[in-house]
Amino acid sequence: MRMFRVFAAAVLFAAATLGAAGGDAQAQDAPAGDAAKGKAVFLKEACFTCHGRSGQGGAYNGPAPILAQTALPLEAFRAQVRNPVNDMPAYSDAVLSDKDIADIYAFVKLLPGPRSPRDIPILNN
Amino acid sequence: MSKGRNGSSRRNFLKSAGLVGAAAASAVTPPVAADAAPAAPLSKKAVPPGPRQIAVETLAPEKDPVNQTSSGGDFMVDVLKTLDIDYLTINCASSYRGLHEAVVNHGGNTKPEIITCVHEDIAVHMGQGFAKIEGKPLAMACHGVVGLQHATMAMYNAWCDRVPVLVFGGNIMEADKRAPGAEWLHAGVDIGQIVREFTKWDDQPASLQHFAESVVRAYKIACTPPMGPVFIALDGELQENPIADRKALRIPKFEPVIPPQGDAGALAEAAKLLVNAQNPVIVCDRLARTPAGMGHLVALAEALQCAVVDNAGRMNFPSRHPLNQSFRRAIIGQADVILAIEMNDLWGTLSHFHDRIVRTSNPATKPGAKIITLGVRDLYLKANYQDFGRWHDVDLDIAGDGEASLPVLTEAVLKLTDGDRKSVFTERGRKLAAAHQAMVERSKTDATIGWDSSPITTARMCAEVYNQIKDEDWSLVGTAIRLSWMHRLWDFKKPYQWNGGSGGAGVGYNLPSSIGAALANKKHGRFTVAFGGDGDFMFNPGALWTAAHHNIPILYIVHNNRAYHQEYMYLAAMAARHGRGVDKMDIGTTIKDPNVDYATVARGMGAHGEGPITDPKDLGPALTRAIAAVKAGGPAVVDVVTDPR
Question: Which pLDDT score is estimated for B45?
Fold first, then answer.
């Protein structure tokens, strides 16, 4: 999952920088997300094509990271959408508004994350 | 060009008949010059026949035999039998009718047995899949020019995949022997030119002795690493006319080339670098070409207790081996010595490429890492098609067959490994094993996300299939683009449990090549399973008819995301780049409205069909029914409607 690691490292670095520069204030200014609208945007704007309808991750030119219950803060999430690392397309505000991104974020945060594979017998063959 | 026993060939028949008819007509009704004087009134008394009429009615006709007791095609079959060729995949065509008939009647339709295909692309792709399981080529025959043009895509895939296929194409070399119409359209001065840029060798034999020597030579060249498809043009006259003197013809002895082993000194130097390295990593692609190959790589990796990153061009390394780090590719960046064996794309494997507005790349390796290459791929390249990939600097470049060279390299490594190094290796192996186990657990955990979703996740699809075939003697022979869950979740440990990809990334490979691999597995009693995308399926669905007609058992899972999905994503990336929105990317990239019912298509071809399966709960029972059909001896298709990736 090389791309995932690069992606995670990049956004964590961005979050730390924002925090030092007053990220709390920016976070308070961020629009609140609507998960239902986020789902519609997620499916309409092709997010699912790489990351899967369940946010399970997938592949584009390389692995596309899991988004279900993402641990990223919204600011880092938005930074990746606007100025992505690696081959992910950059979505400008002409395509996705900050509100759209907040909605998508709310949606993926609510997606069920992984379960214990021990609860699924056929994954233990 | 040899002639018939009476100096007349098949195609002379019409010409002779035509000439006789014309002579007769002119004798009965002599031509009258336009400016000739009006003829005198005919006498009531019969006019006696003239000398030309007498000749037509009394002379023996030109010799025009209608039977023959031998044919060049018979000899051609004799040649094929010496090469132990199991199958001849064909789409029937008049330009090789002489060979076709000889295979059936002279050869008894065995060694080779004809496999009927409904497209030449299917016939060659079957050969590609067959060879990678059976370890030897089958033969394929196609029509002159047009059939060969149909075959080109599959021949290019075989070329890029370095797989031997023996391709024959009909032709009528002598212009005066071609019938009017199609025989001219289907003939060429040099039809091998159509495929020469992606075949290892080709020829157009002008005699039967020439045929024998060229076919044995072609077979030998095809099977010599780096392997590849070869082409032989079959002259129509040569196939169909009687053999002048069978005793004068000799079939050459075939003796396979012993693949070249790398230079012993160079391999010793490589061993020294590997033994002294802190973090050596082996990367490989099309390494294992026989059942022994995987064992040789395991022996080297275990001798070094080093990481193996397998690009899976062949069944190179067991998926559950503790040293398998194929899904931890970041480990390449930690390596101080990299041994790259039989690589298809060295630069692509050792670099990060960025598909952005300004395309850039940077090394995936750390500065100063030593790169050793071992393989034969670059010993035979051509200029036009760029399948050789971008240049990459190396420190030690060893020309030699990877599989043949590994035992020598392993022996050299063991000789150089003293007690201290062995302790270091053991500790390294312990850490790698722990990382491998964590990788396996991570894969299982990732697979649970969206487990009950519809469309079905690809992880669940692969897990459900494995659950039902894991106790069979299974052989996985196909996958869809970027579908890697099988390699993350399944326990691959036998040499025939995987056979690599298409080679040239030419769509339409997966279904027919999987059926070709299933044909090879059939006599071994193995259970063949394959996945393939819906887009790929639509290129060659007729391959299923071949599987049904010849009772070739295979479980084929259609990974149906109703799109050419990689292109869908590329289009979305283009639209996002231009800030124009990505909500219309289904135009030209999807296969819906109407949705294709692949199970019905399968049933129409004589195969068992299940689906479309949209609820994951329905997948297990559908697989059970399909597997029963496969065990009954035929093909079965399960259409699984999936999430994109």
Answer: 63
